[in-house]
Amino acid sequence: MDELMIASTAHPVRLSNSTLADLPKGIARPSYDRSALTPGIVHIGLGNFHRAHQAWYLHRLMQQSEALDWAIIGAGVRPYDAAMRERLIAQDCLTTLIELAPDHRSAEVTGAMIDYLPIEEGNGPLIAAMSNSSVRIVALTVTEGGYYTDPATGLFDSRHPDIRHDAIHPDRPRTAFGAMVAALRARREAGIGPFTGLSCDNLRGNGGVLRQTVVGLARLSDPALADWIEAEASFPNSMVDCIVPATGPAELALAREMGIEDAAPVTHENFRQWVIEDDFCAGRPDWDRVGATFTDDVHSYEMMKIRILNAGHQVLANAGELLSVPTIAGCAAHPAIAPFFRKVQTEEIVPYVHAVPGMTPTQYLDLIERRFSNPAIRDTTRRVAFDGSSRHTGFVLPILRDALAVGGPVRGLALVEALWARMCAGTREDGSVIEPNDPAWATLVAAAQTAKDNPRSWLHQGDLYGDLASHTDFADAFEQWLRMIWQDGTEVVLREYARASRSP
Q: How far is 76 from 141, CA to CA, in rounded Å?
């Protein structure tokens, strides 16, 4: 991105195709003819991350006059997606990306997205778009907990009410996956090959998880279609990485300060990574020409990132919420939280991560600490702590199971879980209320209140912890930590843990 010398702008330019030439000098913008773009990708879940990450890679290819037939059509399946659609359609689906490095900031307007489908009950417009032969990839960012899997087993949850609805009403589905199945059915009936399903969520084996959900749902209503999808469609695994905070009044004001009136700007850090399995049944853009990595070993990259970064986020965020630290950068600088983070990572997370080409786990941990410490990125502790029931089961507990399997230390990971249990009681240590921050918040609060007097009861949530309560080393440590947190406070316990010698 070009460096922008920010100057005061009394009348920022309202973003649209017709005003691109009027943007302040120094703001990069599309050099390609957006009217000549044709669609190749439908992306479901048009949040900030997609626009700062996957759409950016495609935009960079288009800046080289490549991939002009791979433009993005945005989509959503929930009523709240309509508000984002309205904002983006009003500005011709353009997005201002604002890069926030520790020592500079810059802006770029991207234009790889050309439409945003109407949000309708039954998802008719989405099914029609995905049924078109021009669409060769359907990508998703629908959050880690959005794939209808049982959190304890990772298997497809066919009992969920949304899934049952889509199995009974396959022509008027409620979910993104039901819409994908309906479109794949239409393509098969029309003699059109399938599209590639590309998950861009932080899940271990996200392509396999997406395949499991789509094929599992199809099998409930049309086993022959499920067999066709299983045999003919592609679901590559991928690893995505870029810290992208939510947009609020400060981000809107920053865009205006830079001279742009954008209703949905995106701020992001000065780091991106995208590692993808090269398994696309209907072709793909050459994203590797602009920095993506195609490899047969996505798993190693994925494990490094999910365990050190994503699990690390949970290490920081639950402690930060309890101590009223508003941002992840603040957590990374906190005198009690930072040593806790480093010790847990070094002793109980990094040992279960393998090196990837050009990067050891310890080097990656150093990189993550620098990224988390970037004060320009106002990534809120609340955002990172959201949906702990998916993030702890997906990011933290698999590490714990690996450690238990080889007799490794688990006291730090037990403390991570105890902090989450304390946070789910719904109040910070200063007495302020933690607003609901998980789809299962009411259940978690009730369990956390019970665990205040009976800590091990928290671990008896079988849908989260499975059989982990039966592992004495972990359960004993968890009980000790949770009692200490309630009695002595979070900061005292964090310092106690950081001072202790390594557990045997």
A: 10
